[in-house]
Amino acid sequence: MASSSWDMSNMFGSMKIDLTGIIAGSTNNDNAYVPIIDISSLTVNGMDKKKTIEKISKACEEVGFMVITGHGISQEVIDSMWSITGEFFDLAEDQKAKSMTMTSDYPYGYEKGEVLSAGKDKEKGETVERLPDFKETFTIGPNNQDSGMPARVWPEEPKELASIYKRYYEAMEGLSGVLLKAMAVALDMPENWFEDKIDHHMCALRALNYPDQSSSPPLPGQTRAGAHTDYGSLTILKSGGPGLQVRKDIDGRDDWVDVPHVGDGFVINLGDLMRRWTNDKWSSTLHRVVNPPQDGKNHRRQSVAFFHNLNGDAVVSTIESCRDEEGGSGYEDIVAKDFLMMKHLASVKNVVKEEEGEEGKEEL
Ligand SMILES: O=C(O)CCC(=O)C(=O)O
Ligand SMILES: [Fe+2]
């Protein structure tokens, strides 16, 4: 379904968003690159899942990104999440700042001007300081002490935010379970193979607001979100408009391709842990969010990302079907929480893990 069918007034409350403009920085309109996959066969009992799983498998291997429709998440759950998030970001700065978490261990709570973006410049091969992303975020972790993560902290306002976020988080837990079952089969493993690795997971739900730039334009070189890969197993993203791009090799040259914006869909992408787990068979692809056209119109953009992370104590050992003929792998075993913290602390300290072949910042 095309983005024009997206009911923005519903999603943004009273905000007026113009989606007709061409996104600045967009370099390639290869609409077919990121596939749109109807996953209803995964959620409806008795339907043949084979074809859907084949499409997911191909997308994981070749792109690391896909857009899913037919996911079965109630529109009401999505809409309420969307409008309460808009209300939160509309609050005065000092009100939002009360939810700031003063620790660099876990990026939970409210955050503005994230400076995680130092990284290696792919073209020049040198380490560069990047400007903070032009965005603000609010993040919660799991509602489960067994996860080993700190308890959730809620903003005072809006009052209903906590119950709405809990509900959306649970819906995302369910959807990630459905996707991981399909992914297990795609990797020639039993359907329930991921289950005991995710039953006290460390998933994070992050709402992102990319403010209107017409009244305070970005600094030269500053973007909504700098090029990065995500850390975890997979990310489920609901976005309110175009602007997200993925890196693609086009004729031996790195280029950027728009991720199609599908109103009732979710963008799914794999993170570095999944890439490592699959011994690079599956891809964790660089992506970024470009600035809107600087045309004086209000192009505020909102999105909500669910970062799926494994149980902290899960051992990530190359999946059987992804090993070479002798059973070997390019990666040592690693405990999921160590991997996550290594990624997070490396990005906070602006360190780039060269042996992982990664660059840019990453998200928890
Ligand atoms: O807002 C978006 O479309 C993408 C955000 C993203 O990539 C992230 O937060 O990791
Ligand atoms: Fe991301």
UniProtKB/TrEMBL annotation:
Task: Tell me where in this chain the Fe2OG dioxygenase domain is found.
Answer: 199-310
In terms of InterPro entries, this protein maps to:
DIOX_N, IPNS-like_FE2OG_OXY, IPNS-like_sf, Iron_ascorbate_oxido_reductase, Oxoglu/Fe-dep_dioxygenase_dom
UniProt entry keywords in alphabetical sequence: Iron, Metal-binding, Oxidoreductase
**MF-aspect GO terms:** metal ion binding; oxidoreductase activity
Per the record, a Pfam family? 2OG-FeII_Oxy
User: What is the top-level taxon of the source organism?
Assistant: Eukaryota
**Which Gene3D superfamilies is this protein grouped with?**
B-lactam Antibiotic, Isopenicillin N Synthase, Chain
What family does the entry list?
A: Belongs to the iron/ascorbate-dependent oxidoreductase family.
Protein name as it appears in the record: Fe2OG dioxygenase domain-containing protein
Its source organism is: Triparma laevis f. longispina
